């Protein structure tokens, strides 16, 4: 089945449909990662966006529950150069069993859907159909990526139903993605707890949290309570948590006014750690400002420099906004910068027991260079706890 992409600037691409048929629209962005497509599809930070993968072949290892970062895919659409949908031909003699695949195959040269058979996985195409995600393959993703790099992210649509001209007219009637409060679309509707042990009790303000952030804390023994994004500060402080984590999430941070207000009231009363959108929310709560990047940072190979350690780390990133460093002069200390463009990648305010990073220390997908930040978070919690105990002892 044929499919087309229409961009806000009038550009039309023609390709082949895979996944679900239909029509979708969103902000067209690109991700430079070579693997991790299922983590990308299910990352709530991509809500409202159509994601283009720059790596040419996608789908060759299927999909599985272990790779999901939320219950369902959150992207609005998916664009790839070539989608892997069938396995290679295997020469099987008689009823020989292929031990690697665990299959009994009677017919030689039979096509095998590897996406379904390897380790209980299913094909990417089937996974997208089941979750009603509209996707397109067979287009020049290099050309599309260059266009976004040169002109910036823009609104676009994928369709198996309408012509390019019809889509361009429809695009004019759909709102700009940055005007939407996307956090409300992805935050949990009720609080729930993930217990990893008898360690610190962490309140996680869910702005669109990835599963592996929660698991990174649970693996370190934390008891994590995931809260809706609009939970008031008074309620959080009344529950005797040891700390608060502001999670990643989608969209313009300025739209999440409720989260900014909550964070402002928490500062100085409880340790705070922000990741990605949470980093931007912390900056806004401090009185800083944010701005939209031309094409964002999305991929698993972004270098950041730790200014305290004078070291460079490779990180996983997924954000379209950045913190204005000048707006934080006298309010926070910059701890990390992006080694490519110099944008702010980390903050700390020691006197308020607060710090944040723009990148993803949990990776998923990507390198684990920055995973130590979760340990640093726990150390900061312990330091604050020890100081509080000392105050009580000296009273």
TrEMBL record:
GO terms for biological process: 'de novo' pyrimidine nucleobase biosynthetic process; 'de novo' UMP biosynthetic process; glutamine metabolic process; L-arginine biosynthetic process. Its EC number is 6.3.5.5. L-glutamine binds at residues 45, 249, 251, 277, 280, 318, 320-321. It is an enzyme of class 6 (ligase). The gene is carA. Pathway: Amino-acid biosynthesis; L-arginine biosynthesis; carbamoyl phosphate from bicarbonate: step 1/1; Pyrimidine metabolism; UMP biosynthesis via de novo pathway; (S)-dihydroorotate from bicarbonate: step 1/3. It comes from the Bacteria. Residues 1-159 form the Carbamoyl-phosphate synthase small subunit N-terminal domain. The active site is at 276 (nucleophile), 360, 362. The keyword Ligase applies. Residues 1-200 are annotated as: CPSase. Belongs to the CarA family. Composed of two chains; the small (or glutamine) chain promotes the hydrolysis of glutamine to ammonia, which is used by the large (or ammonia) chain to synthesize carbamoyl phosphate. Tetramer of heterodimers (alpha,beta)4. Keywords: Amino-acid biosynthesis, Arginine biosynthesis, ATP-binding, Glutamine amidotransferase, Ligase, Nucleotide-binding, Pyrimidine biosynthesis. This is Carbamoyl phosphate synthase small chain. Small subunit of the glutamine-dependent carbamoyl phosphate synthetase (CPSase). CPSase catalyzes the formation of carbamoyl phosphate from the ammonia moiety of glutamine, carbonate, and phosphate donated by ATP, constituting the first step of 2 biosynthetic pathways, one leading to arginine and/or urea and the other to pyrimidine nucleotides. The small subunit (glutamine amidotransferase) binds and cleaves glutamine to supply the large subunit with the substrate ammonia. The keyword Transmembrane helix does not apply. Pfam families: CPSase_sm_chain, GATase. GO terms for molecular function: ATP binding; carbamoyl-phosphate synthase (glutamine-hydrolyzing) activity; glutaminase activity. NCBIfam families: CPSaseIIsmall, PRK12838.1. It catalyses: L-glutamine + H2O = L-glutamate + NH4(+); hydrogencarbonate + L-glutamine + 2 ATP + H2O = carbamoyl phosphate + L-glutamate + 2 ADP + phosphate + 2 H(+).
């Amino acid at each position: 089945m044929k499919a087309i992409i229409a961009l806000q600037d009038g550009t039309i691409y023609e390709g082949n449909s895979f996944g679900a048929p239909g029509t979708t629209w969103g902000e067209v962005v690109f991700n430079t990662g070579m693997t991790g497509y299922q983590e990308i599809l299910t990352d709530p930070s991509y809500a409202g966006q159509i994601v283009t993968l720059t790596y040419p072949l996608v789908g060759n290892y299927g999909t599985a529950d272990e790779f999901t970062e939320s219950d369902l895919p959150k992207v609005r659409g998916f664009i790839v150069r070539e989608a892997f949908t069938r396995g290679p031909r295997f020469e099987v003699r008689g009823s020989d069993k292929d031990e690697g695949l665990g299959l009994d195959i009677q017919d030689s040269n039979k096509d095998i859907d590897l996406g379904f058979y390897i380790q209980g996985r299913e094909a990417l195409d089937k996974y997208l159909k089941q979750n009603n995600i509209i996707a397109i393959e067979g287009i020049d993703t290099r050309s599309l990526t260059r266009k976004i790099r040169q002109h910036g992210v823009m609104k676009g649509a994928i369709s198996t139903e309408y012509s390019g001209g019809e889509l361009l007219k429809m695009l004019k009637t759909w709102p700009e993605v940055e005007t939407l409060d996307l956090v409300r679309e992805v935050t949990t509707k009720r609080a729930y707890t993930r217990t990893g042990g008898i360690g610190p009790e962490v309140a996680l303000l869910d702005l669109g949290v990835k599963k592996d952030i929660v698991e990174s804390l649970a693996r370190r023994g934390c008891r994590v309570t995931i809260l809706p994004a609009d939970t008031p500060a008074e309620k959080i402080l009344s529950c005797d948590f040891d700390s608060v984590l502001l999670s990643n999430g989608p969209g313009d941070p300025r739209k999440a006014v409720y989260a900014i207000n909550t964070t402002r009231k928490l500062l100085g009363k409880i340790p705070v750690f922000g990741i990605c959108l949470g980093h931007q929310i912390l900056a806004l709560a401090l009185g800083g400002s944010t701005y939209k990047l031309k094409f964002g940072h999305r991929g698993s190979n972004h270098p950041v420099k730790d200014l305290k350690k004078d070291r460079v780390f490779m990180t996983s990133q997924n954000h379209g906004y950045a913190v204005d460093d000048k707006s934080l002069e006298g309010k926070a200390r910059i701890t990390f910068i992006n080694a490519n463009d110099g944008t702010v990648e980390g903050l700390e305010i020691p006197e308020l027991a607060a710090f944040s990073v723009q990148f993803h220390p949990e990776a998923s997908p990507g390198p684990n260079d920055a995973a130590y930040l979760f340990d640093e978070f726990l150390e900061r919690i312990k330091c604050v706890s020890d100081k509080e105990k000392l105050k009580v002892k000296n009273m």
